[in-house]
Structure formats: structure tokens, C-alpha cells
């Protein structure tokens, strides 16, 4: 089974995210927040409008991340119980299980740099870019993380 898994660093910890059918279903319910992301890059707006757009963009990215991380955690915990992330990086893998992070905590601990990278990771996940995990056998013992 091949599935695109992406990792986003939030508060110094890497979380798995996927753009699954379940994520797509949940995102349909929050699609009006996508308009905020389109306005996020506009430069010709007033300071007040810019603050409102930024707040809406933060809300949209946090919501998208929350949904996609919950899907990534559920996928890894259900289908790849034997997969352990590399020890060299800090992942949300604790006592043999992947852990998620809620929207409020994402907004609490994410730095500006992480926010921009989180947005790029979400966009990659939507377009099914790099970062896939591929199973090599049915017993799930050999899974490798590909880097772009």
C-alpha cells in the first residue's frame, strides 16, 4: 500500500499529515476558510485588512493542519504499527504510538517560520508531492521515508 505521508514541524516536533479521503470530506465543511489563504499574499491592503487576513489565514492553516494531522496519525497507527521514525529527529511518536496535536495547540506553539513551512507542507500534501512512505512488504516491517 502506497500512501503519501508528509511531516510538519510544529513547536519543534514533527507530526505526520496526509490528504486522505477522510481529510477531503472534513475539508469540504470548512472550505470557506480557503478564501483567507488566497488573500494572504495580497500586498495592496490596509493594515486593518492585513491583520484580519492574517488572522483568517492562521485559522485556516491551523484547521487544515489539525484535520490532516489527525488523518496522518490515524493512518500510521492503524496500518503501520511497526514503523518507527528516525531517531535523529523529534517526531510525535511516543511509546510506540503516533500522537496528534489539536488546532488550539498548533496556534499556541507554532513559530512564524514553522507557520510558513506548515503552509508549504499542506500545499505539498494537496498536490501529492514528495515525502511518501512506501511499504515494501505485507508485514509492514520495511517502510522507508523518502526525502525530496
Could you characterize what this model shows?
The chain is of the alpha+beta class and 148 residues long. It has helices at residues 21-28, 34-39, 47-79, 103-109, 112-126, and strands at residues 2-4, 6-10, 13-17, 93-94, 97-98, 132-135, 143-145. A three-stranded antiparallel beta sheet has the order 1-6-7, with no helix packed on it. Strands 2-3 form a two-stranded antiparallel ribbon. α3 (47-79) crosses α4. Mean pLDDT is 75; it is low at 129-148.
What's a quick, concise take on this entry?
It contains five helices and seven strands. A three-stranded antiparallel sheet has the order 1-6-7, with no helix packed on it. The protein is α+β, with helices and mostly antiparallel strands and 148 residues long.
Amino acid at each position: 500500500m502506497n500512501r503519501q505521508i508528509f511531516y510538519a514541524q510544529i513547536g519543534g516536533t514533527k507530526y505526520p499529515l496526509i490528504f486522505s479521503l477522510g481529510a477531503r470530506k472534513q475539508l469540504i465543511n470548512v472550505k470557506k476558510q480557503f478564501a483567507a489563504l488566497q488573500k494572504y499574499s495580497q500586498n495592496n491592503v490596509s493594515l486593518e485588512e492585513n491583520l484580519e487576513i492574517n488572522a483568517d489565514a492562521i485559522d485556516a492553516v491551523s484547521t487544515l493542519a489539525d484535520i490532516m494531522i489527525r488523518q496522518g496519525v490515524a493512518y500510521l497507527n492503524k496500518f503501520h504499527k511497526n514503523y518507527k521514525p528516525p531517531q535523529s529527529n523529534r517526531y510525535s511518536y511516543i511509546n510506540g504510538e503516533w500522537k496528534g496535536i489539536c488546532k488550539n495547540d498548533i496556534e499556541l506553539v507554532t513559530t512564524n517560520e514553522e507557520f510558513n513551512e506548515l503552509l508549504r507542507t499542506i500545499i505539498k500534501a494537496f498536490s501529492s508531492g514528495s515525502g511518501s512512505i512506501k511499504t515494501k512488504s505485507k508485514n509492514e516491517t520495511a517502510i522507508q521515508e523518502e526525502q525530496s
